[in-house]
Structure formats: C-alpha cells, structure tokens
Amino acid sequence: MGAATAFTIRAARPEEYPAVVALTDLAFATGPYGHLPVSAERRALVNAVAERAADGAVLVAVEHEPENESGRADAAGGRLLGTVSLVRADSAQARLATGDEAELRLLGVAPEARGRGIGEALALAAQEEALTWGAPAVVLDTGTLNFTSQRLYERLGYERFTSAGAVQVPETDAAASEDRIDHVDYRLPLRDRDDLVIRLVRDDELEAVGALSLRAYDYAYDLTDGYRASIADVAPRAREHQVWVAADPATGELLGSVATPRRGSTISPLAQPGELDFRLLAVDPPARGRGIGEALTRLAIELARLRGLDRVVMNSGEQMTGAHRLYGRLGFARLPEREHVIVEGDRRIQLFAFTIDVPTAVRTRGLAA
After folding, report:
1. CA distance 119 to 47
2. How far, in Å, CA of 307 to CA of 10, rounded?
3. Nearest alpha carbon to residue 45 among 179, 143, 161
C-alpha cells in the first residue's frame, strides 16, 4: 500500500466503533508509552466510543477503496487508518476543557499508515468540528515523551499552558500507567474577539436566519422573487450544506450568516477540485460596521485551509458593491473566466466571480482579525 493512497475523514459509524477501539489500542501500544500497563480509567475511556460520539465527535480517516462501478473512489467501507475524538468540557471523557472549550482526545494512527499526514489531517478536522460548536479554543494533553505529537501540535499553532490540578509523577515509577505520566498541556485559541461567536445554525434558528438574510439583501439590493424565496428557505440548505451564524455571546442575538459546503462537496457549480465556495453572506443591517461580514468570510478561508484546499471562490451579483469592497480588502481578485449571466424572467443578472488563494504556511489567528 503506497504512501499516495487517498483517505477520507468523516464521522465514525456505529458499526465501526469496535474497530475504533482496536485502532486506538494499537496506536497506543506502538507509541512511546506502549510498555506501560493500561489502567482501568484509560480502558473505560477508549471503550466509550458511543459516549464520545454522543457528547462530541469521533472522527476516522478511512482508506479509499478501489473505484466502484460509477468510476469514483469509495471510502464507505474502507479500512480505518486513524481516529480522533473531540469532547466537550462537561463530558465524562474531558480532562482539561473548561467552559465552552473543546478537548481533543485519543488521536491515533495505524502504525503502517504513519508518515502520510493522517494525524495532521485528523487534528485539523477536529479543529473544524470545534468551530461548528462555536468553541473558543481546543485543548489537549500529550505525554512528555511523545515528541512526535508535540511537534505536530506546535506546528499547528497549539501553545503550551499549565492546567490546574495536573498530575505530575516520575515516569520511572514502577507503578506508573498511561494515566499517571507527565503530560504537556496545549491550547489552540479559535477566536480573537469576545463579542462574537460563530457556529453552525440550530434547528430553532432556521426561520430567524431566513428573515435576517432577507433583511440584509433587501436593504441594499433589488431582488427577484425567485432569489428572495431561495434566500428565505434555509432548512434545505442547512440539511445539505453548512449554515453558519454569527451571534452576540451576551444576548444570543443573530447578527449574520453564511453558507458553506460540507467537507468533500461544493455548494455551487462555480467551485472546481481543490476549491471551497460559499454563498449568501449576510449581515443584519443594524449590525453593520462591526466586522461581521469580514469574520464570516475569514471563516470560509479557514475552512478551506483546514480541509487542505487551495482556493476559495464565490459568485456575487454586480450590484453587490459593498460585498465587493469587502472581498477586495481581504485580498480576493476577480475571476472573469468564470463569470456569467443568469436570466430570471425579463431580467438579466451579471454574476461576478471572486477568488483568493488559501494561506497554508501560517494559520491566520482568529476569524475576525
């Protein structure tokens, strides 16, 4: 099996939970602490896949199977190459997280699959999951002898910190187990602002997001009836794609919204392989001037980076000059070869296209810098 074999990251399925346990055990056994006895506490943690999935998320890297009859590679039943869990602070599986923080736990890669970037891809996918929750940070711990993991997390921007109540015992202790080793604690901030939370929309907010988006577009643009209906119909968009909201953390008031595709898909015909597209960026008129449109646009760029994509693209109507100024300020450029005209009744609407290369060398801290 060559290093170039493709893999997909997705949520673990219930029928895969035993394989997740086996993979986690193998990854630990072949790591720097594999010689230590497994404590009852750790055994319970590893076995609690269903509980971690219910409280948070259990992700797996799945090897693509050979092309199916449609000529497309299929990861539906492929072999598991790695796994990671993300849990909330109030979960029984959390060790460090407090408040609304997310905690990354049990990142493991099959020994024969190491060196292919699977651990990094899983960590980035977990970071995206934390963004969907609106978490202010991701925290984690790893053993002081796990230098490979330390290098990975520090490369991804995690910062060391000292948590309260950390257990510190000599690693030469004959009674040591994995749960009693020295740990290095890490934290990755996800926000630069305390006055804004960006997360996925909740079911009880769908109607409010439709109304907000209509207010935003009616405020500045002359909309066709068909486009107005599409803007207001949020529920199908949230089922098929991702609908994000920007909210005031103190009051819960919704201030803006944007729609992005789920991992591995697109939201419009504009995007090509290696690109992420987004639609329906909207800021409630009373909330304009607070950097919300910029924060939501930065979110799209960050999602593309976390997914290993090269560019972000989007269409925008020629009358949406305020949005065009925002895109230009952030570094977007026109993509004239993908611009076109749509016809609705007796109206012809010119759609501009914009693009930006995704920065890959250094993570852009926060979504509203």
Report:
1. 20
2. 12
3. 179
Residue 365 lies in a domain: no
Q: Are residues 178 and 276 in the same domain?
A: no
If asked whether residues 175 and 213 sit together in one domain, one would say: no
Q: Are residues 27 and 151 both part of a single domain?
A: yes
* Overall domain count for the chain: 2
Report the pLDDT averaged over residues 297-315: 96
Domain encompassing residue 160: 7-189
Do 180 and 173 meet the contact criterion of CB atoms below 8 Å apart? yes
Q: Give the tens place of pLDDT for each residue, 315-368.
A: 998 888 889 999 999 999 999 999 988 777 677 778 999 999 997 534 444 444
Q: Please, are residues 174 and 228 in contact by the beta-carbon 8 Å criterion?
A: no
pTM exceeds 0.70 for this model:
yes
Phi, psi of 255 (to 5 degrees): -115, -25
Tokens in use for 328?
């230009």
Of 92, 85, 93, 89, the C-alpha closest to 101 is 89
CATH value at residue 65: 3.40.630.30
Q: Which of 160, 154, 161 is nearest to 363 (CA)?
A: 154
d(CA 250, CA 53): 29
